[in-house]
Amino acid sequence: MVTNAFVPADFVPPTSLETEGFRLEPLGPLHNESDHAAWTSSIEHIRSTPGYPDGGWPPPAGMSLAENLADLTRHAADFEARRGFTFTVLEPSVDEVVGCVYLYPSASPEHDVEVQTWVTATRADLDGVLADVVADWLSDAWPWKRPDRLGR
Asked: Which has the higher per-residue pLDDT, 52 or 107?
């Protein structure tokens, strides 16, 4: 039995969240082109978003589609292994990526999950809404009690 599990063994992670303005689903390789287009169009906007304090992501020079695919594959593997949960934020009407939500273990003993969200510059109006909806979702549907919302 693993005692330092990110989520309890019997916990079934949610795989979707729908609102009027966006839909969340697990991020994976199938989102590669739309995800790549979303974040590369909004590097400066994302880097100025609360929760990205180190300036390491997104990379200012971007990355290739193949590198992005490897990143999405890693996130999907983390989800499957329950070591982290990354969701793509989709525009419901066109099924286009407009952001991401990352739920990973916190390095701080004061928190049990680190929460990061971003949206594209063209959907900046969703930024606070997404962060607040995710906060409520964590409280209602996830097992963590001490989230670090990284400045939200």
From this structure: 107
